[in-house]
Every structure is written in structure tokens, then in C-alpha cells.
Amino acid sequence: MQAVMEKASAMEKAPSVPNEPRNQLEYIEQSRQAHGYSKGIQKLYDLALSYMPDAEKGNQEGKPAVWSTGLMEAPLLYACDTIPVAVYDLGRLSAAEGAAERAEELFDMPKETCSMVSALLGEWYLRKDNSMKKVVALSTVCEPLNMGYEMIKEFGFDIHRVEQVIRPVHGGDERLEQMVKFLASELEDVAVFLTGKPVDEEKMRFEIKRLNRLMAKFREIIQLRVSNPLYIKSLPVLFLLMGSAHYFGKPDEYEAMLDQLIEELKTAPYVESPLGKIVPLTWVGARGLEFGVFKAVDDMGGALLSWFTPNPYDRVWNEEIPPLESMARFILDYFVTGSPVNQIKYIEKMIEETGSKGMLFYTYIGCPYGGMHVELFRNHFHQKGVPSSFLEGSWQVGAPSGQLLTRVRAFVEMLS
């Protein structure tokens, strides 16, 4: 009881911070201060902010690191004694303003180009003299980014492509087994690219077991949040999602942080909404970079309790079959690379489990892939009577537009 009272007192005394952060790092610092009562959140942000600098330093000192998607490849890369450095987390952990503009100038890219691809090309250009030059590229994630990989070869990046396949609709079990075998061979080639030899299967089995254990703990945190949604607000949950794919390069520390948060949530005092009511919500689509959107949700009494994002934290890897086959089957069942029609059932399950009253669909400006999926989702859930709001954001460093924030606030207020 004494510990609970001390946490409650710490919440009340958390220092105030300016209302208008200028970049992602300032939003993180604001959130860190707002969560001053949580040792787990402090450790989470420590891991996030040290992730890429430590990976690069380690790489310079002989600990291999490789650029990757940061989605589901952790067991394979860690089994190769290689730190996965997530391409898609560059902007969230950077304050390098003007990265997209730099890419547009270098490559004469049209303004309509996906903001994510433009920004990532700019980020890589700024890192062209750094030591991490290997890239594992998963082909089915984003076609414009596939072209971007070709562009950065001139900066000395060594690109290894993984030709992924999508689970077949027709052809039956025989066709599926052919795809499993092909994809497993592609994944084996990743190990050869990184180490010069086939993957150590015992190491990969260990990593698969670790991933399953960590994701079970992650899911426990998601479940505990339903009863106390604002103890861990939206931005830290986004970073927990990010870390679920690569552990910020420090698996043991990431697991200890998850354990800390579980213990906190079990005993934490209930955090009231600033407006007296909490509106449970589901986030669908990209993991946004415009952190002000997440703050606006919190400020209006919204609580993002379920996340349908590229991080498949709700899946379990098969530990009973060969590890490369397990990874291949996981990818073929992975909802992001499949048809959005097949993904709907997973979103419905999340809404039911968390009691969500509405949905926020988020995609990046200029992303046809995300935009088409969102339209299919919106139409389905509109017919089901589930309120939703479509947010089109930018892969940028800085605060979101006032128009975007107004839409978020109005939507949450409507559901209150």
C-alpha cells in the first residue's frame, strides 16, 4: 500500500512541460516527464533513445548490426549474432530535420512521392559515412521503398533482398508447402549474407522461444491496460510496439522492462482521465511519427487500447518445427502481407476484446498501399456501425498540423 501511495503522489507532482514540442525527441522528453511515476517507462525511453547509437557503436567495435524492416525478423538476425536496426524507426528516433527535402533534391523526386520513402532516403544519405552498410530488404513490404533501396547502393549500402511470397488463395496444401520451402530457403540466404554460413538452428530455436515469451508478456501489458488505460499513455505504447520487433538491440533489458511494467500495472493507482471519461479506441494502420496526435488522443480522454499495426504481437511462433520453416509459416500467416479482406477478422477481434468505441485509421501522405487498405477497412466497419476517422499524416520531424489535431480532438470528443 505504501508503494501505491508513493506512486500516486509522484503522479500528482510530475513536472509540467511546454505544450508545443518541436520534434520527436522533445515529445519523448515530455512523455518521459509525464510518466515520472513509472520506472518501467523511464527504462523504455532509455532503451529507445540508446538503440541506434549503441548499435552503431557496437558495429564499429565488431558487433555486427544490419538495417532491416524491424517487423518479424528478430529471431533470425539474433541467431546470426546481428543486431536488427529498424529502418522504419529511423524517423521516430531522430531529430534530423529536412531529411525528406534532402532526398527530393538529391534524387529529383516529385513532391507527391510517399513521405516515408523520401524521408528514409534522406536519413540514409545523412548516414552514408557511418559503419552500418548492410541492409536486409523484405520485398513485399513496400514497392516504392524497393526502388529506394536501389538508389542508396551508390552510397555504398550492401542490399540483400528477401523475395517474399503471399499465402496462396488457390492451389491447396501442395501450393502452400511449395511456398514454405521457397521462403525458408530465402531466409537461409539471409544467414549466409550476414555470417557466410547457414544459420545455427539451435540459436534460432532459442530466439523463437524468447520471442514467444516476450510477446506473451507484451500481451499481458495490453490486457492490464484495459483496466487502467492512462497509466501507460499512447506514446509509450507505441514505443513498446516498436521494441516488440527488435528489443532495441538489448533483449534481456527489454524483457526486464516488460516485467517492471507488468508489476507496476498490477498495483498501480487508477489514473483518471483529464475530462472525467475514458474513450477506448483502436488504432489501425501505420505507426505514426506525428507524436502530437497521440498526445491529443490522451488529452481528450481517449485511450488507444488495441493496435492493428505492422507489429504482429498477437501471434505465436511454432516451436515444434524447424526454425526456418517456423519463420516462413509465420510470414505467410502474417496479416500485413495478406489481403486486407483477410485482416478484418483480426481488427474485429481487437475491438471486441478492448470494447473500443471507435477507430483511428492512419496512413502516410502519398502511400497508395496504405490508402487502399484503409478504404476497404473503413467501408467494412462503417457498415458495421463502428465510428472511425481517417488520418493522413506525414513522415516528418516535428509537430503535426493543426488540421490533423483538430480532427483527432473532434472525433474523440464526439465519442465521449
Automatic annotation (TrEMBL):
One Pfam family, please name it. HGD-D
Q: Which domain of life is it from?
A: Bacteria
Q: Note down the stretches annotated as region Disordered.
A: 1-20
Family membership, please give it. Belongs to the FldB/FldC dehydratase alpha/beta subunit family.
Q: What is this protein called?
A: 2-hydroxyacyl-CoA dehydratase
State the species of origin: Aromatoleum diolicum
